[in-house]
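Field: sequence (string)
Field: structure_tokens (string)

Example rows 1 and 2, in order.
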Amino acid sequence: MNGKARISIAIDGPAGAGKSTIAKIISKTLNILYLDTGAMYRAVALKAIRESVDTLNREQMSKLVENIDIKIAHSEDIQRIFLDGEDVTDFIRTPEVSIGASNVATVPAVRLKMVELQREIAKKNSVVMDGRDIGTYVLPDATLKFFLTASVEARAIRRYNELLSKGITQITLEDVKKDIEYRDKNDSNREFAPLSKAPDAIEIDTTDLTIEQVVNKIMEYAKDYVC
């Protein structure tokens, strides 16, 4: 990273498009902070599940996030998510939490709370953020915006392999595909800050691309910010 002013990079797209993987590599390459916004919504969903709160009940969810404490720390290049003082990084990647995260993200009070935290971080740091509405809502003035896409089939296979690598085997590929289709519909049709491509975002279809190829495409645009 050179001596220029702070920069922000927004990477949006549907579930399984490769946003988090790519964002982490970009953050390392440019030596800037990576913020996994999806993990924040997962933490909210986990709290709701633990407290038997309906993740689609707006009134209950609004109360739930009033005093929620979500903090982010980085340890050995891994982003750790702390929920009310507990490290929940290893508990937020289950299919149940994935669906819950998509649900809570439709609740305006939840999104406002998370966006407030995300913008505060971006004010103090050069960042790369990935999510559903970073370029359109969270950071509309981001320095660079990208929108990653991929076929449902490709995204399902990626997510399924990711779960298997983490030892989560009590799920089928078909289950993961249904989960992604549900989240696509939920994320795209929510009334508040839905998943959508910002007019000035650069779209990249990752279906037939390797991780390295996607990173190279993004770095072509971000090269001005490399030492």
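Row 2 begins here:
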Amino acid sequence: MRNLLIASTLAAAAAIVGVGAPAAQAEAKAVPLVRYFDGLKHYVTSGARPGPKYREEGRVPILSRKEPGTRAIYGCLAGNATRDQFLTGAADCENSVNPSAKRHIKLRTEGYLFTSPGPNRRALYRCYVPHTQSHFVSLKSDCESNPPTSKVNKEFVLGYFPS
């Protein structure tokens, strides 16, 4: 994803802020959603780097506040896997999906993504690597598993970010 998430995408998205428009009508500012990797586990956040061993792999712009047609994206820590941080649109961190599993912990609201495709929007996919129990996000619908070096599952489209 290093080459896929381009800093210029963030700069272009920052231009969506309503320059010259009244403050009440200005769109939300773009903030970077950054994917980190420490060699085993991924961590995706609009907050601070999770630790010194994590290196940045790329970033995409997400909105800093709710706009029409968007939903909140939450950063969560999986209750059943060590250091498995993931993103979701579910405020309960998907605890209602499997109530018998160890509870996931909500870490923060990361920002907002559009719920449907549209002009100047790109899909952001949530992906999962079962053998390392690590979630991450990707711009590629195959979750960057081509050629496959390990099994990577595309779970779903998390949302759409301004490009």
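free_text_note (row 2): The chain has one helix and nine strands.
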